[in-house]
Amino acid sequence: MRAMNIAATGMQAQQTNVEVIAHNIANVSTTAYTRRKAEFQDLLYQSSERVGSSSSEAGTLLPVGTQVGLGVRSSAINRITLQGTLQETGNVYDVALEGRGYFGINLPDGTVAYTRDGTFKLSNQGQIVTSDGYPVQPAINIPVEVRDVTINQAGEVLVTQANGQQQNVGRLELFTFPNEAGLEAIGGNKFLETEASGQPNQGLPTDPGYGKIRQYYLEASNVNVVQEITQLIAAQRAYEMNSKVIEATDQMLQTTNNVR
């Protein structure tokens, strides 16, 4: 019976839904993580009587047809690119983006990756790098003996030297994309450009269409735990209901087999 196969597609879809929700909850404390949302589409339909077809020799038309759907499938896992809340850390090289944009980082193979994770550090050569040691683009080097480092909202990195003089040693740049959800996640809070995302537009913090920098802050995950738990319960109940359909179909088949 078709009902058993249809319900099986529903169970598979809800399993994917639960996996996406589990991934969101697992990353509730991940810096600048953006929650994912599973999306679904109904499958093909089988028609025994097509709507609008002739129903008699007189040429009358069927106002409605007879279509039976074949279930559901996962169509996409969308990334919800909403701003996360900013959390104060007190660390000099922690910066958060308030508004649109991504930091550019150089990978060892020469590829440019993009991230909103501003957990920056200093390398053994005094260069600003990510937690994985990848240099921020453009390269910014901090002199050895400085009393203070300030990163203003425009992304300018200002150092105060021992004699009290202030020096501008570089400026952070930002990148935006026509379709941020089209970026390819490669783990480690990093993304790669794709044809779906479009080519990056390079700009400076506080420019029109770009965010601003907040030193001593990090962007938290935008996962709402209460919302995720609610969706998890709904997905679990949908999974159970589809399993009940399979049980009911099995009982119907058993009844048919017992007919003498």
UniProtKB/TrEMBL annotation:
<comment type="similarity">
    <text>Belongs to the flagella basal body rod proteins family.</text>
</comment>
<keyword id="KW-0975">Bacterial flagellum</keyword>
<dbReference type="GO" id="GO:0009426">
    <property type="term" value="C:bacterial-type flagellum basal body, distal rod"/>
</dbReference>
<keyword id="KW-0966">Cell projection</keyword>
<feature type="domain" description="Flagellar basal-body/hook protein C-terminal">
    <location>
        <begin position="214"/>
        <end position="258"/>
    </location>
</feature>
<dbReference type="InterPro" id="IPR001444">
    <property type="entry name" value="Flag_bb_rod_N"/>
</dbReference>
<dbReference type="InterPro" id="IPR010930">
    <property type="entry name" value="Flg_bb/hook_C_dom"/>
</dbReference>
<keyword id="KW-0969">Cilium</keyword>
<comment type="subunit">
    <text>The basal body constitutes a major portion of the flagellar organelle and consists of four rings (L,P,S, and M) mounted on a central rod. The rod consists of about 26 subunits of FlgG in the distal portion, and FlgB, FlgC and FlgF are thought to build up the proximal portion of the rod with about 6 subunits each.</text>
</comment>
<dbReference type="Pfam" id="PF22692">
    <property type="entry name" value="LlgE_F_G_D1"/>
</dbReference>
<keyword id="KW-0282">Flagellum</keyword>
<dbReference type="InterPro" id="IPR037925">
    <property type="entry name" value="FlgE/F/G-like"/>
</dbReference>
<feature type="domain" description="Flagellar hook protein FlgE/F/G-like D1">
    <location>
        <begin position="96"/>
        <end position="158"/>
    </location>
</feature>
<dbReference type="InterPro" id="IPR020013">
    <property type="entry name" value="Flagellar_FlgE/F/G"/>
</dbReference>
<dbReference type="Pfam" id="PF00460">
    <property type="entry name" value="Flg_bb_rod"/>
</dbReference>
<dbReference type="InterPro" id="IPR053967">
    <property type="entry name" value="LlgE_F_G-like_D1"/>
</dbReference>
<feature type="domain" description="Flagellar basal body rod protein N-terminal">
    <location>
        <begin position="4"/>
        <end position="34"/>
    </location>
</feature>
<dbReference type="Pfam" id="PF06429">
    <property type="entry name" value="Flg_bbr_C"/>
</dbReference>
<dbReference type="GO" id="GO:0071978">
    <property type="term" value="P:bacterial-type flagellum-dependent swarming motility"/>
</dbReference>
<protein>
    <recommendedName>
        <fullName>Flagellar basal-body rod protein FlgG</fullName>
    </recommendedName>
</protein>
<dbReference type="InterPro" id="IPR012834">
    <property type="entry name" value="FlgG_G_neg"/>
</dbReference>
